[in-house]
Structures are given as structure tokens and as C-alpha cells.
Design a protein that fits this description.
CATH class of one domain in chain A: Alpha Beta
Largest interface: A-B, 46 and 46 residues
Shape of chain A: globular
Oligomer: homodimer
Radius of gyration of chain A: 21 Å
Largest sheet of chain A: 7 strands, mixed
Low-confidence stretches of chain A: none
Mean pLDDT of chain A: 95
Chain lengths: 454, 454
């Protein structure tokens, strides 16, 4: 029988994360304090992050040790399989080899616990008993609930009200792991009360939820804030996936010619691709093609300017240098909730800016069509976000067929779609709209990107 | 780092299923034609099953080859991991070692595709283009949709109307894999139309859905019927899990002292335990304890008589010799829908009857409490059905602590609970009722077990 899954044993879980900052020819400009526009200092971040996380955020060490306790918890689902998608290859009649790194095996169902677990660990080590965070569709909130459950840390998740009402299972999942999930805006914070007073029927937004979570962490001595994407330490933790994948390719004596992944905040795809991009930067694999896939409705890396902007819509976070559609950009309601973010990780953005990563944008109907083809050949029903990468890979495999190229393609299969089936239903029923970028003009939000001094 | 997961490579997927009929000191009495009460013949079964399946149903060969094509599809998720539950052991402060065989890694999320894939394969090989089946909560329907998607077979799933309305995600999952799912009773069959005429607002029942699926298969030349539990061939296919588990225990030089699993129709637990029960029957492991866990509300193996009865509530199937609460027994509405079955596999029932397997019955609140403990230590959120086994194991591990016994416990972790979170929510909200067997007296249904001739 031909091999399908390339597995690693528990003791092959990487012992260190990979920090691409050590290898970048030029680092991204530093985050700035939003008030002074001066580079943010560790002290700026200490009220809401543990010291070890701040150290990682600013570190330029190439290898950062993964604590043994974190590796133990990783071993619940890691090393995750690298899978050869042989049936998809056959279906597409492509000479290309397609592999995917499968992160849907984690208990919360995505790559998110790769960072939730170490964040919970570092908070616990520094005596923090409670963390706050925001969540949109619920993927990150459930990962943090999962991560904190191992360290007796209380987690308070502010979940955008419209999702809280529409996706009750995500809330239940968080509570099963012992977290508290409240709809945002809530009565729990000053900002939330203000929002509710202004508009008692508001459906909430990620911007409001971030504001509540940050206020909660800032005001309470016992509480830190936890974030699921964008920042350097999150991207660092996610490299565990790419490091494993590299080892798995070695086992079958192969190496990808191209790597695909979906991009919202960018941490999933950064984690899967950075250990390979290292070889590209260093000139060992100059032809490696790295493609971030995103929605046409929120084309951050394919169309947005590269500028300093806030990470949240309320303008509370440090200013980050990144591709941004403007912090108050409101994308059309595509089903890939995790990709509806105005910016992208500064590290990832810088690599895009410098030409190491390219972007492709897709409409949601073609994306779901690709996901259905994947489900009917490879079996797994993937998340709407991940489906963008599947669409990119299918296009590339067809191109390989047309041009007779026996390339090796890898993609970051970041999670399953078990909690997103209502979006599949809308697709199958033919009710899905193909929002375009122009449906929600970003002219105004790009105009609102803050002006820098000098 | 201590090893948690015991993995096998793709090429270690068993090449043969294990047929316990070859090793049973005494076979169960044969199935009977319901009209004549004479032993059912292969010809009785041919209108609705493929020949190869009928052959397996009646076979006494010890080893039956797994077709290469089936092994290839198995390799999407098989071999499944055997996992050492170290954090649960620590939490319980038990000297016992706890292992679980984790079937939640399959795309439909349970052990069911172990039989759905070969059933689809054999139907396809014999030129069948369409299969029909019934499903209650949707676990089996989605597994069959998954299985048939690889063989271009149309699947028609009759889903009990109340579940169809309450669990729309299951229907969407089936349709994602290309199956057609209709609420039962439906307008598609004579029996369905009759039921709807008598009561247009009926919420349906598994009995009605079976009747529709069997009628559909019986009337159409191109269609066979497919079943997800109870019968010998289903149990046979499920032994792939137990055979793998045995190999995995060999790798760590261990062997279970006790094996736990949940029991509805019995195929999951039979599959996980029969390769071990073989050693017990043969006198090599005389002290092996095998415990089937079931709801107090539907205590088939702990309380029901052992008798010939119908497999469905309408009385259409052959008469099967088994533990049965009566074919028209209606269990209280516990959340473990897959355990709400009046009977149990004839092979499994016979082994219970002969003292090789014992039973334990639990209330649903204690079962969910055990599942939450499992989620917060081992990470995975398991199905309400599976949670019965978790409860049994936790009790046994505590007993080991109290008596200082360093036993090795294994359990069949048959599936995840991603589509069952509303039941977790009811538990967490304190809204779950502890139905007892006496809440729904079985006096009448036991009275209705058909009388045999002579």
C-alpha cells in the first residue's frame, strides 16, 4: 500500500520554536506606542502580557526552547500528520504531488492551540490566575479555553454578540473546558456598558470585543490579555507546525516547490511556512513559491498599503507596521470569519513587502467548491478559512497538469469545519454571495490610517 | 518526554478482520425468517445486501481479508492512535494505567466508517449504484455518506424527522459528501406516505426510518440496504480497531486487565474488544474483564431477557437472538441517541449471556460529569455515547486507587462530541434529567417479544 500519512513520534515534537527575526535581511519597523509614536517598550506591554511573552515578542534569537510541559500538552495532538493527498491528485489528473499539514487533529480543531498552550503556560508560571481575550467566530476563544484548562487559569472570552447568538456550540465548547464566555459588548466593562447605552441592540464587533478584553486585563491585577494572531510571539509558537513538516518531508526525501496557506492575521500560514522561507531567504531554495490566500472581500496582502496602523478598530493597541486596509475597515460578511481582518502580522507583511511571499484572492463560491472537492476525495471537511488554501492548491495543481510540471505542493490545512457547516449549507443551497472588495469600499478606511509624525 | 500516543504506520493497518465466530465455544442461534421462523437463508438477504456481505454475515472463517482499496481509504485516519491518558491518571491519583483507542480521528468523527467503507466497496464491486439507510442522530448517516463518496454510489439517508429538524449540521455533513438526506417519514416511500397520512405532524422514529430504508432497497433494482450496527458483518469490520490496539499494546509490552466501551447496537465495543476476548475464550487471558457501559434508561445488557426479537420496531427484519427490551420499547430521551436501542448484536449478546462480558449502567448526569473531567484533563470532547465508557473507566481507576491495584485499563473512545454540544450545554446548565429504566416501563414491550413456535 502506498504511504499516505507521514507521522512523527511524540519525542519528535520540536524542542525549539523558530524565530525568523534572526534570519530576516531587514526587520520590520518596530511597534509604536499609540500616544507617543515612539517605539513601544517592554514596560508598555507589561500590564497585559507575561514577561516571558514580551521577551519572545522582541527576541532576535533564532531558536527559542519549547518548555517541556508545553511539549507534553502538545503531544495530545502533535506531531500532527503530513498527508499526501493522493486521491485529490488523481481527481485533478495532475503530475504534481500534493501534501497537507493537518492541524484539524487538535481538540479545538485548528492550529490555534499551538499558541494558546504556551501562552497559558507562561501566564501560569508568572502567577497569573486569569486571562481575557476576544473571539469572533469562536475558534480562538475555544483554543484559549482548552489551553488554560491545563493550568487552572480562569479564561474570560468576550465573544462578538452576533456570533455568540448564532454559534452557541462554540460557547458551550469553551465552557466544557471551563472558560467563561460572555457576549460583547457586555455589562462587564466600562467600554461595553458605554456601547450598550449608545445602542442596546448592537450586534457587536471584533473591535469592541478587543477593547473589552484589553480593558478587563488592564484594570485587574490578576488578569493578563491573550491574543490569537498577528504578534511576533504568536507567530513564533506556530512555527512548531512548519518545523515538523520540514522533518516529515525529509523522511520521504522531498521538499515543497510551493507552499499555500490562508491568511487572516497571518499566524497559521507564518507558522507553517517560515521554517521553509528561511531556506529561501538564505538562498538555499531561491525558487520556493509561497502563496498566501485570502478573500476578495478582504484583500489585505494583495491590495492594501503597507503602513503603520492600529491592530484593533478602536485604536487602543500599539501601532504596527503592516499591510492594512485601515483599522476601521469593515469587510463584507464572508463566511471565513477568521480572514475578515484589516491587517496582517508585521513579520508576515514585511516578507510580503520584500517579495518573499505572494498573495492570491478568491471569491467564496469558488472556495467552497474547492472544499467540497477536497471533502469528496480526501475525506476531511475543512474550515471556510482553510478552504481558501485548498482553492489556491487546486489551481496550482491544474496549472502543473497543463504545463506538465511534476512539482511538490504543500499546504497548511489549518482546521476542520465541524462548527461551520451552516456556511457549507448555504453554499450547497446556492445562497452564497460573491462579495467583491469594491462592495465595501476601503477608500475611507485607508484614508483613516493614522498619519505619522514627521 | 513520556510517550503519550502509540502510533502505527499506514502499512500496519491490519490486512484481515477477525471473525470471533471461529473461536466461540458455542455460536448464537441463527437469525430466523420472520414469517416462517426457519433459519434465514442467503436468498432471504439477497434483495437488500451484496453477496460478499451476506457471505461475511454467515462466515465461520477466523480471518477475512480486508480489500486493498478499503485499506487505502482506511489510511485517511487509520491506524488510529492508542493513547495513554496520563493526565487523567494523575487527576484520579490512580496507580492504574489508562489507555484509550481513539476513533474520533475519522472524518465523520466516529468508528462508524470502519464498516461504511467496506459496505460501500462491496456494493460498488457488485454493480450497485445506490444504497439506502436510516439514521437517528446522524452519526451513521454521515459515515455512510463519507463511505459512498469514494465509490460514486448514491446514498439516500432516511433521518428521523425530529433529529433532522434539530440537527441540521448532520444533514449538511452528509450532503457535503454527496448523499441525499430526507426527513422520515417521507413522501418517498409507501410506508412513509401512510405514516404521514395517519399523522402529518409525526416526529418520526428509528423504526419508521428503517422501514422506509428497507422498502426503498427492496423495491428498487439498483438499490441495496446498508446497516450501521448489530449484524455480524458490521461487527467483523469493526474489529480493525481491536486488532490495531492489540498491536499497539505489544509495542509498549502491555496488555489490558480490563476493557470498557459503550454499547448501543454493540458494534463499536465488539470491534474494540473481540480480538482480546479471543484470548479470554481460549484460556490465555482468563481474568480479562470486559465491561459494556449503557444508559440506565436503556439497560439492554444489564437487565433485558435473552430472546428472539425483531431488529426494528416495525417487525420487518429477521428475528435475532439477543438481549432485548422488546422491539417496541421506547427508551426515555437520553442524549446518547446511539445507545437508545432495544437490542444488541447477537454475537455480543451471546458473549454476555455466556459470561465473557459484563455490563454496567449509568445515569446521564454522572456520565456527562465524567466527560467534562476527561475534556479538562485529556483535551478531547467525546460523544455522549462514549462518555458512558469514560464513566466506567473512571470508576474502575478509582477502585484501583482504593485497592492499590496497578491494573491496565483500556477503553474504546468511539467518537468526538462536536455535533452533540447542545447536550453538554444542558448538562452545564443543570437541565439534564436522570431518567431511570422504571421511568419507561418495559413490562409491555418485553411482553411483546414475539412468541416462538414449539
Amino acid at each position: 500500500m502506498k504511504q499516505t500519512k507521514i507521522l512523527l513520534e511524540d519525542n519528535e515534537i520540536p524542542k525549539e520554536w523558530y524565530n525568523i527575526r534572526a534570519d530576516m535581511p531587514e526587520l520590520p519597523d518596530p511597534p509604536l506606542n499609540p500616544k507617543t509614536q515612539e517605539p513601544a517598550t517592554p514596560e508598555d506591554l507589561e500590564p497585559i502580557f507575561p514577561k516571558q511573552v514580551i521577551k519572545q515578542e522582541l527576541s532576535e534569537e533564532r531558536r527559542i526552547p519549547i518548555p517541556e510541559k508545553v511539549r507534553e500538552i502538545y503531544s495530545i495532538w502533535r506531531p500532527s500528520p503530513l498527508v499526501r493527498a493522493r486521491r485529490l491528485e488523481e481527481e485533478l489528473e495532475t503530475p504534481a504531488k500534493i501534501y497537507y499539514k493537518w492541524e484539524g487533529v487538535s481538540p479545538p480543531g485548528s492550529h490555534k492551540p499551538n499558541t494558546a498552550v504556551p501562552q497559558a503556560y507562561y501566564n501560569s508560571k508568572e502567577g497569573v490566575e486569569r486571562v481575557s481575550t476576544e473571539t469572533g467566530a469562536g475558534q480562538w476563544g475555544s483554543a484559549l479555553a482548552f489551553g488554560t484548562s491545563f493550568f487552572d487559569i480562569d479564561a474570560r472570552v468576550y465573544m462578538v454578540r452576533v456570533s455568540y447568538d448564532q454559534k452557541p456550540t462554540r460557547k458551550t465548547l469553551m465552557e466544557t473546558w471551563g472558560a467563561r464566555c460572555v457576549p460583547s459588548p457586555s455589562e462587564k466593562t466600562e467600554y461595553g456598558r458605554k456601547m450598550l447605552e449608545e445602542n442596546p441592540d448592537t450586534s457587536g464587533s471584533l473591535g469592541m470585543a478587543i477593547a473589552e478584553a484589553v480593558e478587563d486585563a488592564g484594570k485587574r491585577e490578576d488578569t493578563n490579555y491573550s491574543i490569537g494572531s498577528v504578534l511576533n510571539h504568536v507567530v513564533l509558537h506556530q512555527t512548531v507546525a512548519g518545523l515538523e513538516a520540514k522533518k516529515q518531508f525529509e523522511k520521504v526525501d522531498d521538499y515543497p516547490d510551493s507552499i499555500y496557506g490562508c491568511v487572516g492575521g497571518g499566524s497559521n500560514f507564518s507558522g507553517a511556512s517560515f521554517p521553509f522561507i528561511k531556506d529561501k531567504i538564505k538562498g538555499e531554495k531561491p525558487d520556493l513559491k509561497v502563496v498566501g490566500c485570502e478573500p476578495e472581500a478582504c484583500p489585505t496582502i494583495t491590495r492594501a498599503p503597507y503602513a503603520y496602523d492600529y491592530g484593533d478598530s478602536a485604536g487602543l493597541t500599539p501601532l504596527l507596521k503592516m499591510h492594512t486596509l485601515g483599522h476601521d475597515f469593515v469587510p463584507a460578511p464572508v463566511h471565513a470569519g477568521g480572514l475578515r481582518y484589516h491587517g496582517a502580522s508585521p513579520l508576515f507583511s514585511k516578507l510580503v513587502k520584500d517579495g518573499h511571499i505572494e498573495g492570491e484572492a478568491f471569491h467564496q463560491n469558488e472556495v467552497f467548491k474547492a472544499a467540497i472537492k477536497f471533502a469528496r476525495t480526501e475525506g476531511f471537511v475543512v474550515a471556510p478559512e482553510t478552504s481558501h488554501a485548498v482553492k489556491g492548491v487546486i489551481d496550482e495543481a491544474i496549472r502543473c497538469r497543463e504545463e506538465g510540471e511534476e512539482k511538490t505542493i504543500m499546504f497548511a490545512n489549518s482546521g476542520h469545519g465541524h462548527f461551520d457547516l451552516s456556511s457549507y449549507e448555504e453554499y450547497l443551497d446556492g445562497n452564497l454571495e460573491d462579495f467583491k472588495y469594491s462592495d465595501v469600499s476601503a477608500d475611507e478606511s485607508i484614508e483613516n490610517i493614522p498619519k505619522m509624525k514627521e
